[in-house]
Design a protein that fits this description.
36% strand; single chain; globular; glutathione-dependent formaldehyde- activating enzyme (gfa); 8-stranded mixed sheet; 3-stranded antiparallel sheet; 139 residues; binds zinc ion; 5% helix; mainly beta
Length: 139
């Protein structure tokens, strides 16, 4: 049975859907994600870009990671919700933020990464593999 992932921003102007399976899922604890989200980490689900149908327009902000690669965070210009991101390292993929899913129970993180910069109040699932910096998928 194929699972359909649907979701969008707080005001509803930006929506997405895909029936593909994620290429990669995980929680990013880097300092940029903490600052951009105001929370402890970004729960990310990367899908092949071609499988995603995104409606509504977004604005984006580009930050440069310690690696020198950029990351574009796309957000709804009306409500400010960060909906997805695009990594320079994964040009054919889009990372949806799992908190924007209509059914957030569909998100299953497989790894924690950039845990070296995690906040001390950031509780992590001890069963998940941990990477101090970038996860293997972007190497
Ligand atoms: Zn919105
Ligand atoms: Zn991050």
């Amino acid at each position: 049975m194929s699972v359909k992932f649907t979701g969008g921003c707080l005001c509803g102007a930006v929506r997405y859907e895909t029936e593909a399976q994620p290429l990669f899922t995980g929680n990013c604890h880097c300092t940029d994600c903490q600052r951009a989200s105001g929370g402890p980490y970004t729960p990310a689900m990367f899908f092949p870009a071609a499988t995603l149908k995104i409606t509504g327009s977004t604005k984006s902000f580009r930050s440069i990671a310690d690696s020198g690669n950029y990351f574009d965070r796309h957000f709804c210009p009306t409500c400010g919700t960060q909906v997805f991101g695009k990594l320079q390292m994964l040009p054919d993929a889009i990372g949806l933020r799992a908190g924007t899913l209509d059914d957030t129970s569909l998100y299953t993180p497989t790894v924690d990464f950039f845990v070296a910069s995690a906040a001390h109040w950031d509780f992590m699932n001890p069963k998940l593999p941990k990477f101090a910096n970038a996860p293997p998928v972007t190497r």
